[in-house]
Amino acid sequence: MKELQLTSTVISYNSQEELPADDRALLQAATEAASKAYAPYSLFNVGAALRLSNGHIVTGNNQENVAYPSGLCAERVALFYTSANFPDVAVEAIAITASTKAFQLNSAVTPCGSCRQVMAEIEKKQKHNIRVIMLGSDNTILVIESCRQLLPLMFEANGLLKA
């Protein structure tokens, strides 16, 4: 038996003023996107904003449906839109935030497992790290420099059986 240690480096900021200006702008775009989310069932509005290597910012928000599996998270809305419309432009950073009046958010909002998998695969495909900026309602901000740190044991194509 061998034990493997997995580590991730997460930088924590106490306020947006500590962030570089381009990260603050990305968080603002994510906050605006969250305000437009369609979340009548969870009352949990999530916004995501991507900064592309060409300087373009793409936003997305969660889209719920009464048939719950039919909805989609903010991160994947933005990432899939980007892949469809800017297939050869790298994603440099993603900012994620959320708001709700239904309960109290006590920490930074982190992507779900499905979004982590999509983010990690896009990062691998583009051969360029994606900076992840996650904002909490208490203004705590967590930043990581690679999606791989969110999903160190991601499912990869080399794990598929090939004939």
Topology readout:
Blueprint (H helix, E strand, L loop, with lengths): L10 E3 L7 H14 L10 E8 L4 E5 L12 H12 L5 E9 L13 H14 L4 E5 L5 E4 L19
Parallel strand pairs: 4-5
Antiparallel strand pairs: 1-6, 2-3, 2-4, 5-6
Summarize this structure briefly.
By secondary structure, this protein is α+β, with helices and mostly antiparallel strands.
Kindly describe this structure:
The chain is α+β, with helices and mostly antiparallel strands. It has one domain: Cytidine Deaminase, domain 2 (3-Layer(aba) Sandwich), CATH 3.40.140.10. The protein has three helices and six strands; from the N terminus they run βαββαβαββ. It has helices at 21-34, 74-85, 113-126, and strands at 11-13, 45-52, 57-61, 91-99, 131-135, 141-144. The protein has a six-stranded mixed β-sheet. Strand 5 (131-135) and strand 6 (141-144) form a beta hairpin. The chain is globular, with a radius of gyration of 16 Å. The two termini are 31 Å apart.
Which features would summarize this protein structure in a list?
163 residues; alpha+beta; Cytidine Deaminase, domain 2; 6-stranded mixed beta sheet; globular
Query: How would you name the CATH homologous superfamily?
Result: Cytidine Deaminase, domain 2
Uncertain segments are none
Which architecture name does CATH use? 3-Layer(aba) Sandwich
Element string (H = helix, E = strand): EHEEHEHEE
| CATH topology annotation | Cytidine Deaminase, domain 2
CATH class: Alpha Beta
